[in-house]
Amino acid sequence: MILTGIASGKSALAALLAVMFFLNTWLLFSGTLRLNESNLECEDQKKTLLGTVKTLQDHVERLKLETQNGVHGDRETARSPCNGRAECPWDIQINKTKSRVLGIQRKTQAFLVIGIPTIQRTGNGRHYLSTTLDSLLAQISETDRKEVVIVVFAADFDSKLRQSVVRLIENSYTLHVRSGLIQVIQAPRSFYPPLDDLKRNFEDSQDRVKWRAKQCLDYAFLHSYCKGLGRYYLQLEDDVISSRNFLPAIKEFIVMQEKPWVTLDFSHLGFIGKLYHDRDLERLAAFIKFFYEEQPVDFLYRYFNAILAQKKPIARTPSLFQHIGTESTLNGKVQSRKDVHFSLSTREYFDSDNPPAAVSTTLEAFATYVAQLAYSTAPGFFWGRPPIEGDTFTVVFLKPEKIRRVVIATGDNAHPSDRLERGRLEVSQSAYGQEQSKKSEWACNHYRTVKEFQNGRVDAQIDATPPVKCVRIYATGRQGTWLLVKEIAVWSALG
Predict the structure, then answer these.
(1) For residues 306 and 22, what is the distance between their CA atoms, to the nearest angstrom?
(2) Are the C-beta atoms of residues 286 and 89 closer than 8 Å to each other?
(3) pLDDT tens across 316-355, in order?
(4) What are the pLDDT digits (tens) for 352-405?
């Protein structure tokens, strides 16, 4: 789309003009510009955006001259205009083989590439990296490890600090390095433009500006390296932990999307847990590198989303990743923020089978607390408007299943009143209807009552014969509180 051509003179010129048009239009028609994690006032943000537009204008004028002079006419023989500081920020060329210092390149493309830049903390020299890697690896099954590549970017300028990361991973994660699950990369110093005398937007100190500018360039290098390694790319930091079954949860959330998307958020903090299509990595890297001294990456990725027509965040709740670090990579900065939407586990039963199924309800969901989350083995729950008599919450198995037990829990410790006050558990052996879109939703008939809910819960033994096609909650009365379906656990019959 707009940023596809940021690689040559004429296409770069067109892309820059498009970005300028977008930013100017946004400034003209947006009454407010909301950046939730910033304490900046709207006018301050607009002032910074105006400065960004001016930067674009300068680049456009230079590109016009270069294009007229034939500088970009032949990429193989043309004189490079990239003299001095970041003169060609849209053109990122790296040697992946030389950049990779540990690990192997797998022959097949992964489903998910996880990028983790890491920097030694300047205070006590602490590394959170091992905690992050241990948490991720503990939640990736042996089967799923073939679908994942973790790329650790040792991003310190100091070669001794980079080497300490290499030794740590080489000694502690040998088997994962050999299998290609973990790769370690580093960037040549020549990749970075001078980081002195940068713009002091937001009236930040020179040290802070330098820190966040280098951070942007780190991301640009990491994204460029990871391009082509997998179908999707997940951005993490080196001081996070993951929830249980985060990979199935990511897959489920991708399938749930009915409209095109640029970024899916699996954390509500900063640049943590942001998922991208592999096809967008190259232009995301170019975009971040182009504005590396203008704005923090937490702002830039939102502008990138808006340029590609994603107006609002698409966030999964609960979050799948939590920030645990307290010591920032910026000397003297304390970073103690936590994602209030994160939960290590909201489930009570981990031995249930939960056969493949589509889940639907007549209740309107609040935000992204959709029906499927109550049935998923990953953390999550359904939360919706108060039920009335006749409302249903239905699990439709993809094929009839012999089941022996069903447990459904509503309400939780934080919202004990949001439980089902009046309702019953029903099952059906027969289905009718027609496949609807990708969700394969079918309707069932001839339901029979299995058990009534008591105190918001039901725990029922089911006759394993004949096989069951649908399990549903049927509300038998109106209630004044919302309904939170915390967990639906289903056990298949043995044999």
Answers:
(1) 9
(2) yes
(3) 988 999 988 766 555 656 566 777 777 765 678 888 999 9
(4) 999 999 999 999 998 888 899 999 888 889 999 999 999 999 999 999 999 999
CB atoms < 10 A from the CB of 270, how many? 18
**Residue 333 in tokens:** 């900065």
Per-residue pLDDT tens for 94-124? 899 999 999 999 999 999 999 999 998 765 5
Question: Residue 331 corresponds to which tokens in the numbers above?
Answer: 């000397």
Here the tokens at position 42 are: 């709207």
Please tell me whether residue 39 adopts helix, strand or coil conformation. Answer: coil
* Predicted pLDDT of residue 218: 95
Q: What secondary structure does DSSP assign to 263-307, as a single string?
A: EEES-SSTTSSEEEEGGGHHHHHHHHHHTTTTS-HHHHHHHHHHH
Q: Which residue type does 54 have?
A: K
Phi, psi of 491 (to 5 degrees): -110, 130
Q: Structure pTM? A: 0.74
Interatomic CA distance for residues 134 and 253, integer angstroms:
24
Adjacency order of strands within the sheet including 182-185? 100-102, 182-185, 148-154, 110-118, 230-235, 274-277, 263-265
CA distance 216 to 290: 9
485 C-beta neighbours (distance < 10 Å), count: 28
- The Cα 2–Cα 306 span in angstroms is 11
Strand partners, 228: none
SS3 of residue 206 by DSSP = helix
